[in-house]
Amino acid sequence: MFGAEDYGREVTVDDADVERLLDVGPEDVEAAPELSFARNVFVPLTTACRYTCTYCTYYDPPKQASLLSPDEIRDICERGADAGCTEALFTFGDDPDDRYTRIHEQLAEWGHDSIHGYLREACDIALDCGLLPHSNPGDQTREQMELVADVNASMGVMLETTAEVQAHGGPRSKEPGQRLNTLAVAGELGMPFTTGILVGVGEDWRDRAQSLLAIRELHERYGHIQEVIVQPVVDNERWQGGSPDREDMRRVTAMARFGLPDEISVQSPPNLAPVRELLDCGVDDLGGVSPVTDDHINPEYKWPALRELEDIAAEAGVPLTERLPVHERYVEEGWLSERIERELRADTDAGRRYRDRLARELPPYPNSD
After folding, report:
1. Burial letters for 248-278: b for 16+ Cβ neighbours within 10 Å, e otherwise?
2. Which of 54, 217, 270, 299 makes the best surface tag, with the fewest CB within 10 Å?
3. Confidence at residue 193, expressed as pLDDT on a 0 to 100 scale
4. What's the number of CA atoms in the CB half-sphere (13 Å) around residue 225?
5. Does the CA dihedral 250-160-193-210 come out positive or negative?
6. Cβ atoms of residues 50 and 96 within 8 Å
7. Which spans in the chain are helix H?
8. 320: β partners
9. Per-residue pLDDT tens for 106-115?
10. How far is CA 17 from CA 10, 14, 290, in A?
């Protein structure tokens, strides 16, 4: 059992399942029949964060953190829509207005009492520009997620690990139980969700297996996990601890594919991981890739161009498909809010662009204009 029970939601993993997963290697899985990706823009709503993880270059200290204005958000989203994107990826650190006085004061000046209130406005801007929001705002309470759920096509947060690791240390340490609680809240709210593990931050192999199985347990309970990212930590200005080697990444990627249900995609980020050497380990998704913006969480590692993604798929001998930020089965099964459904089915340039990424036609929304 993991710490999510502190929030009233138990997450348990069977020791026998852990032992079985620890025996898995690349030879136990097969390559996926296709690769997918989403075309997005990266919108770093604020660089403030209550945590100070030693591997993260995203956050800025108080008095240095920035907050995008509504005009800046609109400019990024308009450029993304013009480039054929379908996703606006909103990121910010956990509860930034909890620690950063200046951020809180700016939000108040713009008429918001919390960063989640501002996120809702940002999602409205994205939808107005013709992009589907996918928000990744870290740990969230039920009340916070409820505030923005209906204006998001999908959401996400990296579990990273169920282990207590020194890289999360300090007076404001990340708690695995709080992360698991966020995943459970998303399931209770019926929110299609992306999560993942971070490899190489001090966890051991048993921790990796337990983390993957904890994700599986929550998906079996709610059915909401659409993809799991297997992401190596990478050297940057704050982390010089090195990255996991090729064989470790092959093994842990195979463990993810073997241990997770078939309907969950296993994602390998092509700007951070040796994707070409992982394709036979069950990778079927390359995540969000932007033709417009940088990866603001890993700014030293540039997105590959679409041509490189095509080359990766061609090398593997599989088709490359472009998807929406919400996986198609959730569209088919009616998981989306009325607001997002209307956008998907609208007789607009954006609606047609969304539907071009789906394998089947969508009828107009009932009583839509």
Report:
1. ebbbbbbbbbbbbeeebbbbbbbbbbebeeb
2. 299
3. 98
4. 30
5. positive
6. yes
7. 15-22, 70-82, 101-109, 115-129, 142-148, 176-188, 205-222, 246-259, 306-316, 328-332, 338-345, 349-356
8. 35
9. 889 999 988 8
10. 17, 5, 37
